[in-house]
Inverse folding.
């Protein structure tokens, strides 16, 4: 059993079960007893928890991430580092990872890819605006909820976990999405996250990551070298605009990527509005418009471009896509050389002419810009000293003094110029419940309209910790009244029980002897008695005893009595069952099953002939109990051990007995068949004493 299951961390988090395992930590489902809610707790593995520097950075990063509040980011509630455990408390998500979702669905369509990518980018935009870079964006860290929304988890934790740049087996899950600068151990910023997002989008559209290999190192080298095939190689249905967004985010050079998540979101929105859009991207390297995807030209195509100035049409052998331009015409090698020489000379002349014109234009532009700059500085100084600029700070407002006041809905309405945000509540002996303990920024500070004000609200004095009494076996009503009088919030839930009678407490949640506080909710589970389960009774007559027992046990019957009886049927063959075939009864109903123990040696086994014998008795009436049925059935009476039918009679619905006139001598066995199926064996003693007594 796991060492943490059942433990109470920090006196409030009860570990319930494991819900996930990673290279660095194990994730557990837990219950917070102070706030009475279920949470997810990520506990670091021992090999990382032993590093003091790692633990310090782990706590600092975790506390910073706890400040994030966005619908597309998993909320972090608490961070703790101690000798017993180092863990992060997060909201519990009911969903699966994007990796699991992709494994189930395979290649996603572009609409679904865009839907998920927009939400991930919005979460990154919020985190980047707070100065937090994720550094480990991958499908494993993105949760997909049942309503289709996504949440990014492990924000800021990656910074701590990347303390070592060594690429080990644990890094294999992340190295497929790592940026080139991370792979080289260089500086990372928000654009590293955008690269990883591009790789995730690539995998959603192509059904595989852009780079793969036998080891983490080989994959990292591929990221450093670049040159991933276009996702349209694997999925020709990807729209050009979306492919451009993916490849720009995955640009090898940091400067060629999107500057921010906001810029990437703008292109995503443009594509969402017009899926047929084709973007024109400008780079600082060549100051020319490069349309992505770009396909390398052959040598012949480069010659055609030199002659005509246009890119020729050609079909890629890999993708089947056409290149833009005019068609190439075959020429001889000598003519090509002459044409190339003349074109190059013409280009050099034109370049000199353009450089001269640019020089004149640049000189003129510098003079004009200098004049404008001097004029602007003069105007600014005049406005500054006259107070004009200071008077125009209309968006600057003063932060109200909230510390010491009470938190309520009215407080939010009273300050519409601010976003009042809540930090985790705290117990306080000096501040009553709902009083504001602190605020950030402080009251009286001037900030921009619409700024966030973070407040900490008191939960009042910390309640006394008590041990819960054992109410199992007690009357539910009495237990409810006692818990209510002790200051708890008891709630009753019903459940079936074969051990405790109706109205008796079967268990409590939390369990007996658990540490609880006043005001905490206590669930009382009340017995409704044994659960009624009804199943149809099978026909076991004629079966071997062990087979009959196995069949009855499989159906769940719990109260079955097996009795031996003398019979002409083979030993251990079932000859009688007290509940008829297909009759629906509760599994706890008493059922009697009789099986043959053979015929006693002192009893005559061979019955005498029914007619033509002087030893037979005169016919007399015999009443037999027969199965009660809702429908009419045929009863056949045969001589024991034979298939010879002596009597055949239709039994009306609801009949319980049948009256027959029989004659014979000694003890005679009769086999009864219902609608052709063996039912049971009956015994009749024709001795004079039995006949006289009406046996």
């Amino acid at each position: 059993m796991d060492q943490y299951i059942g433990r109470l961390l920090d006196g409030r988090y009860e570990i319930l079960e494991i819900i996930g395992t990673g290279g660095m930590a194990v994730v557990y489902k837990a219950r917070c007893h102070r706030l009475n809610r279920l949470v997810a707790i990520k506990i670091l593995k021992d090999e990382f928890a032993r590093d003091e520097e790692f633990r310090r950075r782990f706590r600092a990063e975790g506390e910073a991430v706890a400040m994030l509040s966005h619908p597309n980011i998993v909320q972090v509630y608490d961070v703790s580092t101690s000798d017993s455990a180092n863990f992060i408390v997060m909201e519990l998500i009911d969903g699966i990872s994007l990796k699991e979702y992709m494994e189930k669905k395979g290649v996603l369509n572009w609409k679904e890819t865009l839907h998920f990518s927009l939400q991930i980018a919005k979460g990154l935009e919020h985190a980047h605006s707070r100065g937090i870079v994720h550094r480990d964006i991958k499908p494993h860290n993105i949760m997909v909820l049942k309503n289709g929304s996504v949440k990014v988890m492990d924000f800021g934790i990656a910074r701590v976990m990347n303390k070592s740049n060594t690429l080990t087996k644990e890094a294999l899950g992340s190295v497929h999405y790592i940026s080139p600068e991370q792979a080289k151990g260089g500086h990372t910023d928000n654009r590293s996250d955008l690269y990883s997002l591009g790789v995730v989008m690539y995998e959603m559209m192509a059904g595989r990551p852009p780079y793969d290999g036998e080891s983490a190192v080989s994959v990292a080298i591929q990221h450093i070298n670049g040159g991933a095939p276009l996702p349209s190689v694997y999925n020709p249905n990807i729209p050009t605009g979306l492919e451009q967004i993916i490849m720009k985010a995955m640009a090898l050079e940091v400067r060629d990527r999107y500057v921010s998540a906001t810029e990437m979101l703008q292109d995503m929105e443009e594509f969402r509005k017009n899926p047929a859009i084709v973007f024109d991207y400008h780079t600082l390297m060549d100051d020319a418009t490069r349309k992505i995807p770009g396909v390398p030209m052959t040598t012949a195509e480069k010659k055609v471009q030199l002659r005509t100035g246009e890119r020729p049409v050609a079909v890629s052998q890999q993708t089947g896509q056409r290149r833009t331009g005019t068609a190439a015409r075959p020429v001889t090698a000598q003519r090509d050389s002459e044409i190339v020489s003349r074109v190059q000379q013409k280009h050099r002349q034109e370049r000199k002419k353009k450089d001269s014109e640019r020089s004149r234009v640049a000189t003129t532009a510098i003079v004009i810009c200098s004049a404008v700059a001097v004029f602007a500085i003069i105007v600014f100084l005049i406005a500054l000293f006259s107070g004009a600029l200071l008077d125009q700070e209309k968006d600057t407002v003063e932060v109200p003094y909230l510390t010491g006041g009470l938190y309520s809905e009215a407080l939010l309405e009273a300050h519409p110029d601010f976003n009042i945000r809540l930090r985790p509540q705290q117990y306080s002996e000096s501040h009553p419940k709902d009083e504001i303990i602190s605020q950030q920024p402080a009251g009286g500070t001037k900030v921009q309209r619409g700024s966030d004000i973070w407040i900490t609200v008191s939960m009042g004095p910390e309640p006394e910790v008590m041990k819960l009494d054992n109410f199992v076996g007690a009357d539910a009503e009495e237990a409810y009244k006692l818990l209510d009088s002790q200051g708890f919030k008891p709630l009753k839930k019903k459940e079936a029980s074969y051990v405790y009678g109706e109205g008796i407490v079967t268990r409590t949640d939390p369990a007996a002897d658990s540490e609880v506080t006043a005001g905490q909710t206590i669930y009382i589970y009340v017995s409704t008695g044994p659960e009624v389960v009804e199943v149809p009774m099978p026909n076991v007559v004629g079966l071997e005893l062990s087979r009959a027992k196995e069949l009855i046990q499989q159906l769940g019957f719990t109260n079955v009595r097996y009795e031996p009886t003398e019979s002409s049927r083979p030993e251990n063959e079932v000859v009688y069952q007290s509940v008829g075939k297909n009759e629906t009864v509760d599994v706890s109903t008493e059922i009697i099953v009789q099986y043959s123990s053979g015929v006693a040696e002192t009893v005559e086994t061979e019955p005498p002939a029914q007619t033509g014998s002087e030893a037979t008795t005169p016919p007399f009436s015999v009443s037999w109990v027969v199965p009660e049925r809702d429908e009419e059935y045929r009863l056949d009476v045969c001589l024991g051990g034979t298939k010879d039918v002596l009597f055949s009679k239709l039994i009306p619905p609801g009949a319980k007995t049948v009256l027959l006139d029989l004659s014979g001598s000694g003890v005679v066995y009769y086999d009864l068949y219902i609608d052709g199926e063996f039912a049971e064996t009956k015994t009749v003693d024709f001795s004079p004493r039995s006949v006289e007594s009406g046996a």
